[in-house]
Design a protein that fits this description.
The protein is of the alpha+beta class. It has three helices and 14 strands. It folds into two domains: 117 residues, Thrombin, subunit H, CATH 2.40.10; 105 residues, predicted glycosyltransferase like domains (Thrombin, subunit H), CATH 2.40.10. A hairpin with a 2-residue loop joins strand 3 and strand 4. The two termini are 23 Å apart.
């Protein structure tokens, strides 16, 4: 989850939490207009709804949230708080969640930089089995598509020697039954749960970008439908 954000201190974490609580208390007491929104990511899709603050205590804030948001909160065990009254975005952990009443108690408030909002392109997690090959000279990385955007993708695959540098090559995969061959660059390799995640930049043409966009849109539609069905 830390991939989504990075916390930072303005003064120190304890003083920052007090300052955040004071602002949330002013919103609750209507000393400030309530423009509070919560942001979560459910399978990479942003879920953002307004929230109502019910109670503020030292280190604890109780809110009533949109029911769809509560499902996303349950998945992530945290949420981002966004308001024009806050000097920065805030991340808060869940202490207690009652989905039936759409109520959540947050704790551990910190200022945060939300990395995922800095992405230029929408990225989605891929749960269906999509095989991907990356070839660069004699090197072959063969694995499963993990996530994708119009500008890049990641592959989960076994470790391969010779991947400790930037490599230019080609990726081969199929979306919705249509085979694609796209020039690509292997940027880096990450360790993920005993496997390797290969981060690849795509140099897609208009046709490939259109197919990827259609694939992403369909995944987003399915994810929103899943959230609504859970709610």
């Amino acid at each position: 989850m830390q991939d989504y954000y990075q916390t930072f201190a303005v003064e120190d974490y304890q003083k920052d939490e007090i300052a955040i609580s004071l602002i949330l208390g002013q919103i609750m007491n209507r000393a400030l207009p309530n423009d509070l929104r919560l942001l979560n990511y459910f399978k990479e899709v942003p879920i953002c709804f307004a929230a109502t603050i019910e109670n503020v205590e030292p280190g604890l804030v109780k809110m009533t949230v949109h029911h769809t948001q509560s499902i996303a909160i349950q998945s992530q065990k945290m949420s981002f708080l966004k308001s024009s009254h806050l000097p920065h975005d805030v991340v808060a952990k869940v202490q207690r969640l009652r989905i039936a009443k759409s109520q959540v108690v947050f704790t551990q408030f910190s200022f945060a930089q939300i990395r995922s909002e800095r992405r230029e392109n929408v990225r989605v997690k891929v749960t269906e089995a999509v095989s991907v090959d990356f070839r660069s000279g004699k090197l072959l990385v063969r694995g499963r598509l993990d996530d994708i955007s119009s500008s890049g993708l990641t592959i989960l695959a076994p470790a391969q020697p010779g991947c400790d540098q930037i490599l230019v090559g080609t990726v081969y995969f199929a979306l919705s039954g249509i085979a694609m061959e796209v020039p690509a660059t292997l940027l880096r390799v990450l360790d993920v749960d005993g496997a390797k995640k290969y981060v690849i930049k795509l140099d897609a043409g208009p046709k490939e970008e259109r197919l990827v966009s259609q694939f992403i849109f369909q995944i987003q539609t399915d994810i929103i439908r899943e959230l609504k069905e859970r709610a």
